[in-house]
Amino acid sequence: xxxxxxxxxxxxxxxxxxxxxxxxxxxxxxxxxxxxxxxxxxxxxxxxxxxxxxxxxxxxxxxxxxxxxxxxxxxxxxxxxxxxxxxxxxxxxxxxxxxxxxxxxxxxxxxxxxxxxxxxxxxxxxxxxxxxxxxxxxxxxxxxxxxxxxxxxxxxxxxxxxxxxxxxxxxxxxxxxxxxxxxxxxxxxxxxxxxxxxxxxxxxxxxxxxxxxxxxxxxxxxxxxxxxxxxxxxxxxxxxxxxxxxxxxxxxxxxxxxxxxxxxxxx
Length: 267
What we know:
By secondary structure, the protein is an alpha/beta fold. It has helices at 18-29, 41-48, 66-78, 105-133, 154-174, 192-205, 209-220, 232-242; strands at 9-13, 33-38, 56-60, 85-88, 136-141, 179-186, 254-257. Strands 3-2-1-4-5-6-7 form a 7-stranded parallel β-sheet, sandwiched between helices.
């Protein structure tokens, strides 16, 4: 399907991550220029190597301060491009444990700064330009946790929920200027993050990696009725659609790609 975005420029944060990289592949295939950013230079270089080098700029940037987002904007301008699409996939799971006994104030601030404030900074850097030109697409990667919070992941729950409400608030203002803002909420996707979770679980339980996944699905995600981890490309397809002209009547939504993991029918 032609997404009608040929010649557009897409900025992708957290671009070394599996879901972001798969999204970049689709957007490049649709004829977009790409500005890819991540905090890890080696991982970003490796990810960019999986794409055609034509029309691709990479930027190593720390989004913990506004200067990081501004650095990405400057790189985009240096390439002679104006950003039409922003996919904000940078983030961390953060500290886990008992909500009060194990989580420190530093843990809270780390997750808040990484999962929420980075989105604010990227929005400040790019959305005004989209509004001025009358066309833009913004997609924040949230999580199943915004609708179904898990007690040992309170910092992640809160910061991702804040990102969702921030995106929703902006969507009500900027759609009239031509910038549509949405979110995508994945659950238990085949990424380095969930690999690490399952490796840790396998070690703790004295079982194989696959057995760890099976027991996690049974015990922790009983409503994920497809009974498997999702694939990064399955999330990327939804993100890319929301970046397109085809999704011109979609605004302020939170699209779940979760295999049925979240049991509620709203958010």
